[in-house]
Every structure is written in structure tokens, then in C-alpha cells.
Amino acid sequence: MNDSDPTQVKRRDFMQLAFGWCSALFALGASAVAGARYIVPNVLYEPDQRFKGQKPEDYPEGTTFLSDIRVFLIRKGNSFRAVSAICTHLGCTVNRGADGHGFHCPCHGSQFSDNGEVTSGPAPRPLSWLLVSLSRDGRLIIDASQPVEAKKYLVI
Amino acid sequence: MLQRVWNAFRASRVGRSIFRVGLPASNLERAQVAISSFLLHLQPAKVHKRTLKPSTTFGLGLISLYLFLILGVTGVMLMFYYVPATDAAYQNMKDLEFVVTAGRVLRNMHRWSAHLMVVFVLLHLCRVFYTGAYKPPREFNWVVGVVLLLLTLGLSFTGYLLPWDQLAYWAITVGTNIAGYAPLVGQKLKFLLLGGHMVGESALIRFYTLHVIVLPGVVLMLVALHLWRVRKDGGLARPDEPAFVQQELAPGQLPTSKTYGLMELARGSTPAVGLAPEDVVFTWPNLIFRELLLFLAVVAVVLVLAIFWNAPLEELANRVHPPNPAKAPWYFLGLQELVAYSALWGGVVVPGLLVTALVLLPYLDRRRRGLGVWFARERKVALTLFTVCLIAAVVFTTIGSLFRGPNWSFQVPWKPIPAEEQAFH
To answer: Domain check: are A81 and A38 in the same one?
Structure first.
């Protein structure tokens, strides 16, 4: 190799450049990843999505609104079901229709049938049905974080 | 008397170390004061006469800057009492309103300035569009301006949550859910913004941090860049002067038709090169005086608004019952109206396309014809497109603000809402 040829890159210069750039980029990249990861919380202090209610017989026939978890508990004879009151459009709380049927959202006017299906308005999905179960001491447990297939009842 | 005290101070060692020039008496000093004073050097020593004419810009950008400064000062004042915690924030608002001396006026000033700033930044954007002032060489400064508009909306939106009342809570719930509709990243973005799944303590502290330091810091830096580019791009946009012919120069040859004096040197083909010296006047006092006058006017208007009209504060945030109807801030009501038809289109597609179009505009519309002229005839297509979008935005915003009642049903604003429809269930 001819040392005086200006088009030749010396090994030492090449190594210095390569190491320099690699470590600079690595430092920047690692800091960016760590910084981005830093703002994703690892622990959430949010209210429990499971709600322990009364004994089944304490609920009246028809609809009860469980405000703690924003869920409608609907009793029909000895069957219980839970429908989420959180509008699937933009997260407002839906209201029971004025005549006791269906649900409607005050924010953007979405309307839902008794089963939670969208009947009009911008909502993209039906209201979720949620898991209703019975605790050991015979009380209802509604889990708002556990959606189930529509038309799934708890029958006592 | 005052004059003599000032003169003595100016002549002292301390006075000379602070003020390099002092109040200028000669043209030389008028130039020196603009060049060597920190605040005044934002301006060139001399400006074109067009700059002084109100109809050139109506001072819209400057008014926006003044409102930003008022927001900074009143915002820092509010920070002395405000605690960003869900169980304290609303109480602090009540304290500011009823207990703290002048607290109500400061909060009102902050709120009204924020609304006005959105209005004036939008008007400023319209002015720059209708005078074609984004055309080369000012393309990049237009893009900086678009980013500043988005930051202004972001500042207003993050500030919206802080009072922790019904208005705040549900506007942010709706707003962040719209972000959730963005393809692929939507849900992650929403989680990151809120620091959780719902609007709660972590969302409040995140919005607060963004509102009081992150966004204002970025705005401040970009405003500095924005103003610097105005100067470096040759001052305010104005029509090319027909009399000017660029001289072909041999290397080393000095142009013969120019006077080198107190003007700035401007490189390349920027409009300031070849400027006839007769059309310019000294910045001090011509421009400075007008700017100070405008500042006084802006402060006066904000003060009058703040003294006579109170900023709204609804009941404490209730995470179960949204108000009916639940509305976003007014400048998002056009989007909310679209969102009422489809969240994806109204919340993501339309605003995304609008912002993309605004950013690309100066790179697509590059002809210099019509530069610096209001509603230039040569720009019929661009003017029509922009005006149609503008009218659509105004119409949707008006419908969303005034014509939407309970359950987002259509209603006319001059008819009272029946009591049974207002009630919650």
C-alpha cells in the first residue's frame, strides 16, 4: 500500500471514524429508547374494574346503574346480565332511553338497542357485555375488564 | 428633572455598561440602537415603508406573540396557587376565583388570552395565505408557522384539563379518545398521553407538565426561529419591484447602482437585495412606536375582557356523568361535528389531510406571482381552494358550537331547550 496516495484511507483513520460514529449513534439511540420507555408507566393506580355488588335477590327487576364501574346491570327474572355504559364512540357514559328501552349517548348522539347493538349514530361497535359471576358468599361480581359474547347471561 | 437623573445615570460607569447607545438623537444612533440593543435587534435598523402600513399584516402575528407573552406571565402567576392533583385542582380554581386577590382577573386574562391567541394565530395564517407570503423564499417559515399553530392548539388543549371541572374532564376524555382512532399507534398514543386507561391523576400531571414547560419552551424557541427567518428571508413579503434589474457582476466587481449604508446585507436573490434605499425608514422610532402602541391595545382589550367577563368553571369533574351535550373547546367543535358522523374521518383523516396540505402548500404553489398582494388575481385556484376549506371549517364550527343541543341533536340557538331533555338519567 502506498502511504502517499491521497485516495487511500488509512486503517487508523477508518477505525477511528467507524468507532466514533458507531458509539455516538449507539449513545443517541439508547438514550432515545430509554427516554421513550421512561414515559410509559409500569404501575397504574386506577380503580379496580371488578365490582362486588349485592346478593342477586336485592336487585330490582329491570335496570340498575353501577356508577363505580359505569355498567348497567339488567335483571330479568332470575337472569342477570351486565352491559357497559361506556360509549364505544368516544368514551362518554350512555344513558338509559327515556322510555326505559335502549341506550343513548349525550356526546355525539349514538343510540343502542337493549342488547347494546348500534341502532344509529357514529358508534363503531356495540356496547360490550361483561362477565357477571357469583362470589362464594353469594353476591354478584361484575368485571368491567372482561367482555363476554353478547347474549351471555348469568342465570341463578 | 427625570431627564437629568436619566442623563446622569447614562453617563455613569454603570449606565454606560448597561445601555450602549441610550435614547437616540441622530440617525446614526437610531441605527446603532436597533443593532446593538438585545430587544431591538430583533428588528432591522431600517424597515420598508410597507411594513408600517396597517393593511400589510394588520399586526396579526405580533398580536399573537403579545398574547403568548401575556399567557406566559399570567400562567406563571397562576402556578403559585395551582396544584396539579385531582383532589386539589378544582379547589384551587375556586380559591383563585373567590379568595386570592386579583386571582379571578388573572385567571380570566389567561383564559381569554388563550382563546384570542387561537383566533389570532388562525387569522395570521389566513393573512399570510391571502397575501401569498409563503412563496419562495419563505416556504420554510410557513412550515414553522404551521407547527406553531399546532402547538398553540396543543397548549390550549392541555390547559383545558387543568381546572378539573366537568368541561375539562369530558373535553379531554372525548379528545384523547379521538386520538385513539389513529391507525396502528392510536391506542398506544392515547395510553401515553393519559399515562393510563382513563383521565385521572397521571393524565393531569402529564397535561400540566406539557402545558407549563414542554410546549411553551418549544413555542418560545420556534417563535425565535420564526422571527429570525422573517428577517433573513427579506422582511415582510412584498411584490417584486419592476424597476429592479439584477446586475451581472464579474467576480470582484462592485455593483454600481447600490448605496451601501446602514442596510443589512442580504445574500442571493432575496427581495432585500437591490432594495431602493428611499423606500425604507428607521425602525426607531417609526416601527417601535407602533409596536408598543399595539402592545398597549392588546393588554387593554384582554384586561377589559378579564374584568367584565368571567372564565367558565363548571361543577367538579364527575367521571360517571358527562354534561349533556358534552362539547370540546370551540376550536375543536368543527372536528367534533365531523366526529359525530364518523370518528375516524372527523378525528383522524380530515385533520391529518388538512395539516399535510398546509405543510406541503408552499412547496406545491411555488410561483412568485401575486407575492405580497392581497387576493392577487393570478392566484384564483389557490384562493378558491383555501376559501372553500375556510368556509367549511367556519360552518362546521358554527354548527358544533351553536346548533347542537342535548344528545347532539340539531337545534336552533334562539329556542330554549325543554327542561325534561336537559335532565340526566
So the answer is: no
